[in-house]
From TrEMBL:
Name of one Pfam family that matches: MerR_1
Xref: PROSITE patterns: HTH_MERR_2 (PS50937)
Keywords: DNA-binding
The HTH merR-type domain, residue ranges: 1-66
Family annotation (InterPro entries): DNA-bd_dom_put_sf (IPR009061), MerR-type_HTH_dom (IPR000551), MerR_fam (IPR047057)
UniProt-recorded name of the protein: MerR family transcriptional regulator
Source domain of life: Bacteria
SMART domains listed in its UniProt record: HTH_MERR
Protein's UniProt keywords contain Zinc-finger: no
């Protein structure tokens, strides 16, 4: 315990306090010996970084609980990584910086539930660089992250419906999933064009347009 506290730059008393507050996972025990590893050190450094950014211990505890109960990266990615998306690895403090302090336990839980986030040791994995960048850009525009995540759930539902529609259209008796993969860009083009025209219609209906 003394060695872990020294590496983390905290006192043993502080380490015991964090453990009592369940801010760090329990050590692996062999008899009376408690073994700490790099996961514990990473968590302690995360706690220090979040405290420096103004987070409270109670807020960090809630984040830690959501983090510990989130899906791991293997479950998040399923059988394989997305074919066209690039997962992004982030520390909890980096995630807090990306969303300007809006990485609350509630928002983290919503993102975990959506499948946007998973865990891999001491890191958080976001399923898509593009989705992460868009979400962060919307937050910078002043849109609350909670609203962005609510909208994302609606987008997910519509995207699933569109994927089902296109799959049903393509996968006739004479076509296979290879054909679906080959024709995938056509589906994306249709969705992009229809969304663009739908936005045009919304803009034209606004007063003064």
């Amino acid at each position: 315990m003394e060695e872990l506290a020294e590496e983390a730059g905290i006192t043993v008393r502080t380490l015991r306090f964090y453990r009592e507050r369940k801010l760090i996972p329990p050590p692996r025990r062999e008899g009376r010996i408690a073994w700490y590893d790099d996961t514990h050190l990473a968590r302690l450094r995360t706690i220090s970084a979040l405290l420096e950014r103004g987070h409270t211990l109670s807020g960090i505890a809630e984040l830690a609980e959501a983090f510990d109960h989130g899906r791991d990266v293997g479950e998040l990615l399923g059988l394989g990584e997305p074919t066209e998306e690039t997962p992004v690895r982030l520390s909890p403090e980096e995630l807090a910086d990306v969303f300007a302090g809006q990485a609350t336990p509630e928002n983290l839980a919503a993102a975990l539930d959506l499948g946007y986030l998973g865990t891999d040791g001491g890191e958080i994995v976001h399923i898509s660089r593009r989705l992460l960048d868009v979400s962060a850009a919307l937050v910078r525009e002043g849109i609350p992250l909670a609203d962005v995540l609510t909208a994302a759930r609606g987008v997910r539902d519509h995207a699933e419906a569109l994927a089902t529609l296109f799959t049903t259209l393509v996968l006739t008796e004479n076509r296979t999933t290879d054909d679906l993969t080959r024709l995938r860009p056509l589906a994306k083009s249709v969705v992009e064009a229809e969304l663009s025209m739908a936005l045009d219609r919304r803009l034209s209906r606004r007063p003064g347009a």
